[in-house]
């Protein structure tokens, strides 16, 4: 047969968002010996296959002892088709109470194949027709942009501002969209150590955002993959923790707090729906036609991990959190040592995986190619996190998956690369 | 906040397809002590949790010995984020060669979260705009109807006919859709022991379908979850095995051949795409925004199972296949014993999980409620598998997950129920 024509396939396949993911993966695959400040992966330092087996055994024990299931019921639960909303929903609800002080009905939890499926389910539910739009603080995590693409839902940018989101701009965008006949359904935010900027939302802004959501009638999609990985043990309340009017749909990831390889995320959607039930029930119906149910074996591993640590992911990730604190410190100190003259500048996030560097040269895909090929060091052009223009002179450095020696050597390489770019671009500061 | 209005959510959430799934699950949940001829689940007779651990260990050995990975590479592969197209794609390609004689490039395989995600990815890719439609033999598996709903793609019915599909009607539907300005992109078929009808496509029809696909330029989506479970050891060639022009997108499920709890399916999409690559590469991009990647832990379990049986799922499912043969025989003989007078009639599939019964009363949701409440026996109204009207006097019996005693007792209950319905509807034959 003659080749399928890309223009005859879904528009997302020609969109820069999916192309950019592909490009970044492709570069990483081509320069495997490079040191990568690009990958936003969790540290592998404490990975153990045996941990998987221990977690699985712990969850089985829970089913037998606490739930009173007999062996055939346990086998059925773990190996057969299962409940669409998941089998560790209750453990996740308990975790949210323990770690975040957030009380949710377990029936409002849908366990998903990673947080990405949770985003897809929510946007698929909210995108009823061509009037519907979603807003997101820009620059934006590519996952939400990609999910919006898949459901043909325009993503409108909101400026980030000092407190993590520019609420005046958000209000303008919501009102403007409505005036133009559109329906702004929700705003997507990562209040804690956002990807890609590393910035956080202060508590006053969190409260004001919820008031605005109530006043202008939109939902808030709170994504929180990095909240446990701050410099300080005390953490601000989540938006869901401050949410008195079920305005917040909470998107959870267990990739960074358990194993990415389990691919377990979840969504808390306790919004009432006309006719009865909550939004989680509607998301479950969509999930039944997307992935049917999340692998109960994979859920069991994550469930066992929660049980091992008395439902606390703070406790479960103590060692990893220390690694991330140390690595951020090494990265920030290392940048300061190597660029003392103000040629570059960068932000100083108090947590998470990412630091954003402002550079006096164009940090685009071609620059990344030169960095990878000539200096064996990878980073992410910030332009990939903007829709349209933006971020041309910025790049993202991630330090989560590197050992100290790799950070030092990586920064040496980065200095050599940046020095070359500055000289060649003829910038004098 | 005021409740979300269902009419403001995606149309799929008001569609009968999703409602019907919900209803059937709800009935099954409400009458847990009923004998269920409704569930199309695999037998649990040989389920063993220890098997999961053995499979995982076998796959690790494969990575270490055959692939030469060191322990840190194994940990990374199983626990970290991974390749979007999967890590058991090569084992699946070998399985297709061993069991089906089908040779495919492993790069054309995308491992998915069950076959349902494979359907979603394919339809999402093919549905570019409102002109695109997909065709399916009617009555149709609800999973494809649901996936089509999620991407706003109309599903047009094709009559099944004697050979498993009425090719004249298919040609009419394709030409008619084109004349009306639509783009019929693909036809969905289950050539072997289809759900819900149990019927199969003869080899002549398979070849003719492929010729028609070439002549009228559409793709064939071949779904094959039951092909290994026939009365006879010799099996007809799959459509993919007969496919000389990459017309066939092959949808595979490992739910019935390994464990449903692993949630592993796959799609073989070797269709060339303009600009290079194959359709699998495009599906991979969509998957990166749907579930990112399939749990490598879950893939490892399935991979280990394939390795244990020298890549043959025929060998791996010998015991299960015997159970299904016995159960079909018990079901068909049991129906003949209990309804000797021709009050009911049924088909006699040569494989798979399902038998369709024609009844002289309306076999709708209300009848199912009466059967469940009054007689403690469940079945599936065939009307759920039709878009619009159809199947009002038919029901589906599934025997895959029952023990012999349950089939006998279930049929006794079903006879009592059917007798009551016939008397009350006043039908005399």
TrEMBL record, chains A, B:
Q: Which GO terms describe its biological process?
A: alpha-amino acid metabolic process
**What keywords does the record list, in alphabetical order?**
Aminotransferase, Pyridoxal phosphate, Transferase
Q: Name one GO molecular function term.
A: pyridoxal phosphate binding
Show where the Aminotransferase class I/classII large domain sits: 99-413
Cofactor requirement? pyridoxal 5'-phosphate
Q: Which InterPro entries match?
A: Aminotransferase_I/II_large, Class-I_PLP-dep_aminotransf, PyrdxlP-dep_Trfase, PyrdxlP-dep_Trfase_major, PyrdxlP-dep_Trfase_small
Name-wise, this protein is (S)-3,5-dihydroxyphenylglycine transaminase
Q: Which organism is it from?
A: Lentzea xinjiangensis
């Amino acid at each position: 047969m003659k080749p399928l024509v890309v223009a005859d396939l879904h528009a997302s396949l020609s969109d820069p968002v999916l192309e950019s993911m592909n490009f970044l993966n492709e570069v990483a695959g081509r320069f495997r010996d490079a040191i990568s400040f690009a990958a936003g992966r969790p540290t592998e330092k404490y990975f153990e296959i045996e941990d998987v087996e221990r977690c699985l055994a712990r969850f089985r024990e829970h089913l037998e002892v606490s739930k009173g299931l007999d062996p055939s019921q346990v086998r059925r639960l773990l190996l057969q088709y299962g409940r669409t909303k998941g089998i560790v929903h209750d453990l996740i609800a308990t975790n949210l109470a323990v770690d975040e002080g957030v009380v949710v009905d377990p029936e409002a939890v849908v366990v998903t194949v990673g947080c990405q499926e949770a985003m897809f389910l929510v946007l698929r539910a909210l995108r009823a027709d061509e009037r519907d739009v979603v807003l997101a603080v820009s620059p934006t995590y590519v996952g939400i942009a990609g999910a919006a693409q898949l459901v043909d839902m325009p993503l409108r940018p909101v400026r980030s501002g000092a407190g993590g989101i520019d609420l005046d701009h958000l209000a303008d965008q919501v009102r403007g969209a409505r005036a133009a006949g559109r329906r702004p359904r929700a705003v997507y935010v990562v209040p804690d150590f956002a990807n890609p900027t590393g910035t956080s939302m202060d508590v006053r802004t969190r409260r004001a955002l919820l008031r605005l959501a109530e006043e202008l009638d939109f939902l808030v999609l709170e994504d929180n993959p990095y909240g446990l990985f701050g410099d300080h043990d005390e953490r601000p309340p989540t938006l869901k923790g401050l949410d008195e009017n079920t305005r917040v749909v909470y998107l959870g990831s267990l990739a960074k707090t358990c194993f990415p390889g389990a691919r377990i995320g979840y969504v808390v959607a306790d919004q009432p729906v006309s006719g009865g039930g909550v939004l989680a029930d509607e998301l479950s119906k969509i999930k039944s036609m997307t992935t049917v149910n999340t692998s109960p074996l994979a859920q069991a591993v994550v469930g066992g991990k929660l049980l091992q640590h008395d439902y606390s992911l703070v406790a479960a990730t103590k060692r990893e959190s220390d690694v991330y604190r140390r690595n951020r410190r090494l990265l920030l100190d290392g940048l300061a040592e190597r660029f003392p003259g103000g040629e570059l500048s960068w932000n100083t996030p108090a947590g998470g995986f990412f630091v954003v560097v402002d550079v006096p040269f164009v940090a685009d895909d071609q620059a990344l190619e030169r960095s990878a090929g000539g200096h064996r060091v990878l980073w992410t052009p910030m332009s990939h996190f903007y829709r349209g223009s933006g971020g041309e002179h910025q790049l993202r450095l991630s330090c989560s998956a590197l050992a100290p020696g790799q950070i030092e050597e990586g920064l040496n390489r980065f200095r050599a690369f940046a020095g070359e770019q500055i000289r060649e671009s003829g910038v004098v500061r």
